[in-house]
Design goal:
- This protein is an alpha+beta fold and 214 residues long.
- It is built from five helices and ten strands; from the N terminus they run βββαβαβαββαβαββ.
- The N terminus is likely disordered.
Amino acid sequence: MDTEECVSFPVLGEPAPDFTAETTHGPIMLSSLKGKWVVLFSHPADFTPVCTTEFLAFAAIYDELKALNVQLVGLSVDSISSHLGWVHDIKEMMGVQIPFPIIADLNMKVAKKYGMIHPGQSSTAAVRCVFFIDDKGIMRAMIYYPLQNGRFMPEIIRLVKALQTTDKYKVSTPANWQPGDKVVVPPPKTAAEMEKRPSEGYEYKDWYLCYKTV
């Protein structure tokens, strides 16, 4: 691949790459969404079967994400007219209104900035990416899926809640964590803190692994 064609990838813990783009709801600038969390997802193409099932599923979780202060934004390497036609078709044929904006990225400017084009899958379609950007504009998590496999919406909701729980309580979430489960307390940083840990009232497994309820 030519150096000029190389795609970049966002980095966890760093500012999400800013962009301005046209969407089905009008122009959007990522940096203008600070103060909200953003779930930015890409799909390979409009008017395709798996993507249609995903749009129905994303529409179903839209209100729950909105209640979590999350702006949902879609993207594919298609035109505005294609997006609008597809959204209209989904409403007419399946009775579902798509409530979130969809970025038209015909020049692949956003797709390449976010590493959505994987030549081993396709050089002309974005793979199924999900980017979790916090209310300060920081990239917090990323999930990539192949073209053939649809996403699991409960995991998107779960991960948003896990990230927000981490921020609110300064804790970590263990494997298989679900909202309401106990969280992991940060491990001690000094020998003195380690000695105190058994008496601090946590669910104590060992000095480096303790749980609490939040």
